[in-house]
Design a protein that fits this description.
Blueprint lengths: L1 H20 L6 E5 L2 E4 H7 L8 H23 L6 H23 L8 H12 E10 L2 H12 L20 E6 L5 H8 L10 E3 L2 E12 L5 H31 L3 E2 L1 H7 L8 H4 L2 E5 L3 E4 H15 L3 H20 L6 H23 L8 H10 L9 H32 L2 E2 L1 H9 L2
Antiparallel strand pairs: 1-2, 1-10, 3-4, 3-6, 5-6, 7-8, 8-9
Helix pairs in contact: 3-13, 3-15, 3-16, 4-12, 4-13, 5-8, 9-11, 14-15
């Protein structure tokens, strides 16, 4: 007996450890026909805001349950084979696979260390106070440089400067981050009070005097840390993305035909049948896109944006290349991608179900609008029915939608009788 109790004690302890180890996100919110929906599932669809009270949060939980019941019913009715749903899903499917493969190939490889952030911060607060002499002639710049080396005062040479706006050539204080590389290189070699060699920058030559070099008191590290991290992350992502996309383009052997590109913007009065048969871009040495198949779309976009045809083509081509690559490595077979595709299909089925059972069934009679207006005249501040007819009609429609959707969702609850975990609901309502 003691041995049994001892084993029971250990078993209970083990169960407690297992339960305690379960992530809050994995806790089951409700179950229907053996299918479970967790807190994580809920949070993928809804987010609480700090200002929401318990009643507002409960409405979101109820809405999530209603939506999942609608998906369950849609599956029962075979909505996954509905033509509209299938067509929309094919578009969503490609986008999901492409975007997630890009995320895996690019964004997941972006890492920013604390030392990198600190290095940028140090450059932000590292300030140089500078004065300048600006000239356009290389020979004049060399003359001024030689005069300074002889000990001639900087201020006495300001008369040669094109800068007539600043006092004594003083152009203010600059952080290391804001100075052009060639200017910074020269300034960093110069002690306070000293002058740089002539620096060629743009169309001018600059001789700079370092008036002061100091560390600024602001901004504070904690105040700009995340902004720096985001900037570094963005820069790294762009660099990785450029390499990733260039490799895709090289592997696909992308080639453009200038004659085809030119034909895309030809007016109808000049375009010929031969023009329409010209290829514009090819990939993998076998797949061609012809002028006739994209000319209308390219012209419509060009009229709105004035973006060159090749750039417009690349907007579609690059996502296609990413998608093609994802399929070649069986990225679409990964469990997490399959799960995302399933959820995308569920959402489309929900939209179709909601449209069929609620939106398409709501009909508004003109007399309903008239009656609503008569009983709510105070809401429209002496405006005539003609002036507010569309507004009143929208309100009547909204009210009928609310009534019908309540009936539809209640019927689904009655039919499927979902088992709701009230303990988990209570935790969600109290969540910070």
């Amino acid at each position: 007996m003691k041995s049994t109790l001892k084993h029971l004690k250990y078993a209970t302890l083990l169960l407690f450890v297992i339960l305690a180890g379960l992530s809050c996100e994995d806790q089951v919110l409700f179950t229907v026909d053996g299918e479970t929906y967790t807190i994580a599932d809920f949070k993928e669809n809804f987010q609480f805001t700090p200002t929401e009270d318990s009643l507002q949060r409960l409405k979101k939980i109820d809405e999530f349950i209603n939506q999942m019941l609608a998906v369950h019913e849609a599956r029962e009715r075979g909505y996954d084979e509905d033509a509209i749903v299938k067509t929309a899903f094919e578009t969503h499917k490609k986008d999901i696979i492409m975007r997630n493969y890009y995320e895996t190939s690019v964004m997941s490889k972006v890492h920013v260390s604390e030392s990198e952030i600190r290095d940028v911060y140090n450059k932000i607060i590292d300030h140089y106070h500078l004065a300048q002499i600006v000239v356009t002639s290389d020979s004049l710049a060399q003359y001024i440089e030689s005069e300074l080396e002889k000990g001639v005062l900087f201020d006495s040479l300001l008369k040669f400067s094109l800068d007539t706006l600043t006092e004594n050539g003083d152009i203010g204080t600059f952080s290391v981050m804001s100075l052009p590389p060639q200017i910074l290189e020269a300034v960093e070699k110069t002690p306070v009070g000293g002058t740089t060699k002539a620096v060629s920058f743009g169309e001018y030559f600059y001789i700079l005097k370092v008036l002061e070099h100091k560390k600024a008191d602001s901004p504070k590290y904690k105040d700009v840390k995340e902004n720096i991290r985001n900037t570094l992350s963005r820069d790294k992502a762009m660099e990785i993305a450029d390499e990733f996309i260039q490799k895709l383009i090289d592997d696909a052997k992308i080639e453009y035909n200038q004659e085809g590109l030119d034909a895309l913007l030809k007016p109808d009065s000049l375009i010929t049948k031969e023009d329409l048969k010209k290829w514009v871009v090819k990939k993998y040495d076998t797949a061609y896109v012809y002028v006739g198949s994209i000319r209308e779309a390219i012209q419509n976009q060009y009229k709105k944006s004035f973006i060159e045809p090749q750039k417009l083509i690349e907007r579609q081509l690059i996502p296609d290349l990413i998608y093609d690559k994802a399929l070649t490595v069986n990225f679409d077979k990964k469990l997490e991608i399959k799960d995302k595709l399933r959820k995308a299909l569920d959402f489309l089925m929900y939209q179709k179900f909601y449209s069929d059972e609620v939106l398409e069934k709501v009909q508004i009679d003109s007399m309903e609008v008239v009656n609503y207006y008569k009983t709510h005249k105070d809401d429209y501040q002496d405006k005539t029915l003609e002036e507010v007819f569309s507004v009143v009609k929208a309100r009547v429609r909204e009210a009928k939608i609310d009534t019908l959707r309540s009936k539809v969702f209640q019927s689904l609850r009655d039919k499927y009788n979902p088992v709701i975990n009230q303990t988990v609901v209570a935790k969600l309502l109290k969540e910070e």
